[in-house]
Amino acid sequence: MEDNYLEWHRDEYEKKKAAWLRKKSHLPRKHTSIDKPEDESL
Questions:
Q1: In terms of pLDDT, which residue wins out, 34 or 21?
Q2: How far apart are CA 9 and CA 17, in angstroms?
């Protein structure tokens, strides 16, 4: 295609992906810890 349709959509995709990755990197991570009983026989 001579009108750069595919290139334009690829550029838009890359911009959205970069924005999503920036937003994702600033979200707090949830770390869950499992409390183990002292007596392992339970």
A1: 21
A2: 12
Mean pLDDT, rounded, for 14-42: 78
C-alpha 1: how far from its chain's center? 33
Token pair belonging to 41: 């026989």
Q: What would the two tokens of residue 13 be? A: 């995709």
pTM: 0.50
CA atoms of 42 and 11, how far apart (whole Å): 57
Pull the structure tokens for residue 39: 């007596």
What is the C-alpha to C-alpha distance for residues 40 and 19, in angstroms, rounded to an integer? 46
